[in-house]
Amino acid sequence: MSLDADVTRPLLFEIAWEVANKVGGIYTVIKSKAPVTCNEYDDRYCLIGPLSYKTAPLEVEETKPSSAAMRSAIDSLQSAGIKTLFGRWLIEGSPYVLLLDVGSASSRMGEWKADLWNIAAVPSPSDDQETNQAIMFGYLVTWFLGEFVAAQDRGLQSRPSSDLIGDDASQKRPVVIAHFHEWQAGVALILIRKRYLNLATVFTTHATLLGRYLCAGDVDFYNNLKFFDVDAEAGKRGIYHRYCIERAAAHCADVFTTVSHITAYEAEWLLKRKPDGVLPNGLNVIKFSAIHEFQNRHAIAKEKIHEFVRGHFYGHYNFNLDNTLYFFTAGRYEFRNKGVDMFIESLARLNARLKELESDITVVAFIIMPAATHSFTVDALKGQAVMKQLRETVNEIQNSVGHRIFESAAKGEIPDSKILMDEEEIVMLKRRIYALRRDSLPPVVTHNMADDARDPILNQIRQVKLFNFASDRVKVIFHPEFLSSNNPLLAIDYEDFVRGCHLGVFPSYYEPWGYTPAECTVMGVPSITTNLSGFGCFMSEMISVPSDYGIYIVDRRLKSVEESVNQLADHMVEFCKKTRRQRINQRNRTERLSDVLDWKRMGQEYIKARWVAIRRKYPALVAKHDEECGENSDDDGKSDFQYGYESDANPAGMQREDLSSLRYHQKVPRPPSMPGSPRLRGEMIEDEVTAHLFSSEDDKDMNVSALMSELRALGLRGTAEDFVPPSNGSSTPK
User: Fold this and answer.
1) What is the pLDDT of residues 307-366, one digit of tens each?
2) Edge-to-edge strands, sheet with 96-100
3) Which of 33, 50, 277, 439 is the most buried (most CB within 10 A)?
4) CA dihedral (245, 249, 250, 251) positive or negative
5) How far apart are CA 305 and CA 353, in angstroms?
6) So where are the chain's domains?
7) CATH topology of domain 6-278
């Protein structure tokens, strides 16, 4: 490349199978990150993905490319019969997006598969449709990028504009960065390296293929990671060809990254290249922000869950909803990887522990994971229908009684309470109450499962005997469908459901990042995760004592399965013992961690990765740039990730900076405020002034005389017998 090229205003292409095409979690990553990237690159940023005729009309507003290089590259594809769609993605930031119709290249598939075998020895079975699509997508992306770079080299830039090409021909040609996500986009990296295309590349794996398959089986994955025969293991599972693509992509990229340190360790041994850096996933915190009202939103959402629980349980038996906590786990149906096996076992132990403590707390545990079903169960539908009828009847009677009270008061009379309800209304109310009565146990699952007898979740629930008996302190509800406000049973969106719950439990065995606990955090909901999840590792590094902020981390790496299950049960018991005030205090602390997970912070790691790719691809250009800026390009033996780069979105964008200040900031210290006060005998201490005197950690060893002295100094009265630490788990949940 000419030394006149510009490294300070690069063009960025981001390529993934889930661009404007929601399949899994990478869609969330790219969509939520887009506003930050658009702010950094403006119109020098374009995403590339497959063209889905089902979703594209809803996701993309078609426009004409105004840059000559972009037009030339797209015209080249279209003249060869490849269908494309270029426009603005209808999300925050409105980035450019180019969608390529993989199906329109199907006639070339045989030729391309043969070429891939010749240049990289990557096999491709004819019956693997996903791999076939990945190969065609990779060749189309490479075709486009090759045409685009060639058009730049031919000097086809347009007149000055803010478009993707950016500047007019009199200015330096900007370098091009291509950032690829996951193996489905990895074929292009192999071709870019083989064809010597003039652009810098970054590859991010969000999870390794082989790691996910190995963890799904009964394998001690992390302790044996160094000893796996990766080729043989991939072959046994029928994914050798996919594994070859993923491994080749990791080795062909200028910069190889993962989303967490635990995945970096995994990738080093399975893909045989040590990642150059970690790009943690962030969230668009503004979307979840409810700074002054998230406690109220919790109460509103919790009432919606109450409505469902009444319909599901009342009539079978009753329990006090004011003394009920809602726990949940959610995600893809990966029984072992998501830790559902550990969650159910720990619920059984929590049930036994709460019975031992004679606690009046009831825990309703939801498992939200989509599975094959036929329909809703009759019992579940009937319970909600009968409860709805009761609600409508009570509302009618309420209106009638209100009218009678008003008429009596208007006449100057006090209404007789005995005649407020007439005989017909009493009969109708009795009929509704009798209709509620059911002799069976509340159903554990809300749907008729397609394969009830072999469903792993139901089988383990049967094994631990969590059948929702009236005597159980822990009730279980398996909802094998994603939540929606249109659901006739549990009519609530997932975000509102999370806000209404008290604790999210995600004891994953394989979780490269973990968006579910992260979403809990930004919504102020405490959660339990593990040190085998990327989120858990990240929070361990960021926070001195994560549990102070409602992030409980179970050790699944160094402890045995039995010890891990007990630790998870201990965390849940500890949470059940908290008072209302302690939970409110903890939710406030949890919500304050939102900024730690914001893309405005996490995006810094992407900035550094892209700059390292430029430095590795164009060392002479970077050296010249450093010389012009008066900087020393000698790294003093430091690795590439010892320096970072900010784009021109910041006036200081042309300055390199020490990465140590950006990598992970100083740990979040323990909160200065104490947890909420313990229970006084028969009541709560509600005076805010006294809240700082008590700590749940000190309940067992309270210095009563010291507390009494402070109370007297505050003008408050009490006796030593008044102080009863919460030992039996009784409390009134918020």
Assistant:
1) 999 999 999 999 999 999 999 999 999 999 999 999 999 999 999 999 999 999 999 999
2) 60-62, 84-89, 96-100, 45-50, 6-15, 174-181, 200-205, 255-258, 277-278
3) 50
4) positive
5) 25
6) 6-278, 382-438, 679-722
7) Rossmann fold (3.40.50)
